[in-house]
C-alpha cells in the first residue's frame, strides 16, 4: 500500500497501528467508529461557541511524544529564547554566524513587527535574560515518512493554550474513556502559570493579575466566533487570579504600594513597553518576544539550534527560504508561500492548488510587495492523514497538532501534556488546518499510557 502521506491509524499493510489498537482494547470499543450521537454531540457547540470537535482522536505513542515532540520543543523553544537574548541583550553573534541572517534581513523583519534592533535593545536595557519569557505554539505535522516537523512558530497570543484542556476533557466526558491523573489532570495552562509563579518565589508579592488576549474570529459577520478567552478566564478563576484591563495596571500597582507583581498576559506587542517599564512587574509574555513568530525567521531556526545548542534539530523545519529575488520557485507546485506577518491561516498559499489567474496575481505580489523578508517559500509537506473507515476509504482528514509550550525562565520550558490537534477534510477547498477558517479541533491521546498502568 503506497500512500504519499503518513496514515495516523493504519500502517502500510493496512493493519491498525499499536497506539490505536491499545486504545481500542483499553476502551472496549473502537475509537475510529464513533456513534452518530457522539459525532453530533461534538459537532454542535461542544464548547459553547462555533468550535467543533472531530469525533475521532489522534492517538500517538506516549514514548514518541515524550522523546521526540516534547524534547524537540524544549530544544526549539530554548533556541528561540537564546536567539531573542542574543539580539536584545547580547552580541548578536547569529548575524555573523554565516547562516544568511544578516543585519539587513533582521532590519526588515523587525521593521515588519513595528520595531528595530536599536528599539529592541533600548526596550530591554537593564533587563536580564531570565525575563525572556513567552508562550509558544508551534504547528507540527508528520511528513510522509512519519517524522514530526515544525511548519510555523507562533509566539504570544497562542490559540489552544486553554482549549487543549477543554477539547480533551469534552471528548473524554462524552465517551467515558478511562483516563489517568496526567491525562485528566489540571489544565496545562494552570500548571504552567503556577509553575511560573512558584519560580518567581521570593521576588513576588501577592499582586497577581491577568490580561486576556484576543479571540480568534474573522472580520466577516459570518465568520466563526471562537471564545477561548472565556475558557482562559475559567482556568484563571480556579487559580484565584483576577482578570483586569491593561489600563488598570498602574492604578493597581499604586494601590499595592509599588510592590512587585506578576502579570499573566496572553498577548503582547510593541505598545506594551509602558507596562514593561512599571517597576516590579513580571510578565508571562515579555514585550518584543512576539517578533519570534515572524515567519521570515523560519529559514534560520534549524541553524540557530545548531549554533546555540550545538545539536541537530530534533524537530526540523521543512526547507524554507526568503523570496529575496522577488520570484516564485521554478518548481512552484512543490512550495507554499506565506506572508511573514500572516496569522490565523491568512495569506498562506499552497501553489499546487492555485488556479492560473491566482498564480499570476501571486507572482505580481511577490515581485512588488513580498520580495526580501516580507514572505517565505516553504517546501510543501503533505500532513499525515486520519481515515477512520480505513486506509482505502474515500474520506480522510489532514492532521496537525499544537503542543503549547511555555518558556518560563532561562532554562525552564514546560511543554503541554494535553496537546490539541486540528483536522480538515481532504475535500475541503481551503485545505488549511486553522480553526478560524473552519477546521475542527481533534483530541490528541497517547498510548500506551504509562500513567494508566498499561504495559508498554
UniProtKB/TrEMBL annotation:
| One Pfam assignment | CP_ATPgrasp_2
Every copy of the Circularly permuted ATP-grasp type domain together lies at 57-180, 281-405
InterPro entries annotated for this entry? Answer: ATP-dep_Glu-Cys_Ligase-2, CP_ATPgrasp_2
What PANTHER family does this protein map onto?
A: BLR5612 PROTEIN, SLL1039 PROTEIN
How is this protein named in the record? Answer: Circularly permuted ATP-grasp type 2 domain-containing protein
Q: What is the lineage of its organism?
A: Bacteria, Bacillati, Actinomycetota, Actinomycetes, Kitasatosporales
Amino acid at each position: 500500500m503506497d500512500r504519499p502521506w503518513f496514515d495516523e491509524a493504519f500502517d502500510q499493510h493496512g493493519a491498525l497501528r499499536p497506539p490505536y489498537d491499545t486504545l481500542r482494547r483499553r476502551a472496549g470499543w473502537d475509537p475510529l467508529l464513533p456513534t452518530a450521537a457522539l459525532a453530533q454531540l461534538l459537532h454542535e457547540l461542544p464548547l459553547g461557541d462555533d468550535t467543533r470537535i472531530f469525533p475521532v482522536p489522534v492517538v500517538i505513542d506516549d514514548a514518541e511524544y515524550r522523546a521526540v515532540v516534547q524534547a524537540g520543543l524544549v530544544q526549539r523553544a530554548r533556541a528561540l529564547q537564546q536567539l531573542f537574548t542574543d539580539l536584545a541583550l547580547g552580541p548578536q553573534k547569529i548575524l555573523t554566524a554565516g547562516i544568511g541572517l544578516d543585519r539587513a534581513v533582521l532590519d526588515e523583519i523587525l521593521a515588519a513587527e513595528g520595531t528595530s534592533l536599536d528599539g529592541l535593545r533600548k526596550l530591554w536595557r537593564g533587563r536580564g535574560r531570565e525575563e525572556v519569557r513567552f508562550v509558544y505554539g508551534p504547528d507540527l505535522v508528520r511528513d510522509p515518512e512519519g517524522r514530526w516537523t515544525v511548519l510555523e512558530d507562533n509566539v504570544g497570543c497562542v490559540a489552544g493554550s486553554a482549549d487543549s484542556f477543554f477539547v480533551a476533557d469534552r471528548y473524554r466526558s462524552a465517551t467515558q474513556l478511562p483516563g489517568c491523573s496526567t491525562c485528566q489532570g489540571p489544565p496545562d495552562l494552570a500548571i504552567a502559570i503556577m509553575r511560573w509563579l512558584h519560580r518567581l518565589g521570593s521576588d513576588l508579592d501577592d499582586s497577581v493579575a491577568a490580561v486576556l488576549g484576543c479571540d480568534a474570529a474573522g472580520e466577516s459577520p459570518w465568520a466563526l466566533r471562537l471564545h477561548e478567552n472565556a475558557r482562559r478566564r475559567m482556568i484563571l478563576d480556579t487559580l484565584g487570579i483576577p482578570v483586569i484591563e491593561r489600563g488598570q495596571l498602574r492604578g493597581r500597582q499604586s494601590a499595592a504600594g509599588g510592590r512587585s507583581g506578576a502579570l499573566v498576559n496572553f498577548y503582547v506587542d510593541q505598545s506594551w513597553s509602558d507596562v514593561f517599564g512599571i517597576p516590579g512587574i513580571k510578565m508571562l509574555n515579555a514585550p518584543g518576544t512576539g517578533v519570534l513568530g515572524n515567519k521570515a525567521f523560519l529559514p534560520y531556526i534549524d541553524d540557530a539550534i545548531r549554533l546555540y545548542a550545538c545539536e541537530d534539530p530534533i524537530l526540523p523545519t521543512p526547507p524554507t527560504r526568503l523570496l529575496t529575488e522577488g520570484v516564485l520557485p521554478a518548481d512552484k507546485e512543490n512550495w507554499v508561500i506565506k506572508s511573514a506577518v500572516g496569522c490565523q491561516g491568512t495569506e498562506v498559499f499552497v501553489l499546487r492548488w492555485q488556479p492560473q489567474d491566482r498564480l499570476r496575481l501571486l507572482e505580481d505580489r511577490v515581485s512588488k510587495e513580498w520580495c526580501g523578508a516580507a514572505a517565505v517559500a516553504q517546501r510543501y509537506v503533505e500532513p499525515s492523514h486520519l481515515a477512520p473507515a480505513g486506509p482505502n476509504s474515500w474520506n480522510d482528514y489532514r492532521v496537525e497538532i499544537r503542543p503549547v509550550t511555555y518558556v518560563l525562565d532561562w532554562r525552564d520550558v514546560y511543554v503541554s501534556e494535553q496537546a490539541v490537534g486540528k483536522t480538515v477534510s481532504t475535500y475541503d477547498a481551503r485545505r488549511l488546518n486553522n480553526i478560524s477558517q473552519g477546521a475542527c479541533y481533534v483530541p490528541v491521546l497517547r498510548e500506551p499510557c504509562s500513567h494508566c498502568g498499561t504495559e508498554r
